[in-house]
Write a sequence for this structure.
């Protein structure tokens, strides 16, 4: 798919949900960024035919029992700082207070400051895995939307 096709889907998504796509992305990323991710969990975005949606944390392998027609179910992976190349060399300080990047000396006073930095990087499009999942979601949304729109 070309970038302008994704942009058209994003516009359709905005109109359907009544929320700016950037704000939706931020809500998903906010749920996805963890200091120590639990590999048994994921972020779940559910979109309903009436234009409502919810975002939460789900247990892998569990579902809400609703059909594809009743809602779109999309999963996003959890993200921890070390998933991003730019934070691979960040370690916790020996005294346990804060984090430091061993390569460039950047300091993060606590886990929240580190998570804020990771959030900014992901939201800015600097994490390819999330960008891939976002584009996959856009395709799924488009297929789902066209499916019930054509009924």
């Amino acid at each position: 798919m070309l970038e302008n096709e994704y942009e058209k889907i994003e516009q359709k998504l905005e109109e359907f949900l009544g929320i700016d796509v950037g704000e939706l992305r931020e809500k998903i990323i906010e749920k996805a960024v963890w200091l120590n991710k639990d590999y048994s969990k994921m972020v779940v975005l559910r979109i309903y035919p009436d234009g409502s949606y919810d975002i939460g944390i789900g247990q892998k392998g569990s579902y809400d029992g609703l059909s594809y027609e009743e809602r779109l179910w999309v999963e996003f992976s959890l993200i921890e700082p070390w998933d991003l190349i730019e934070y691979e060399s960040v370690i916790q300080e020996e005294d346990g207070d804060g984090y430091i990047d061993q390569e460039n000396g950047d300091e993060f006073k606590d886990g929240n400051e580190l998570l804020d930095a990771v959030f900014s990087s992901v939201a800015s499009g600097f994490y390819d895995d999330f960008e891939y999942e976002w584009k996959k979601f856009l395709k799924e949304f488009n297929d789902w939307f066209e499916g019930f729109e054509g009924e």
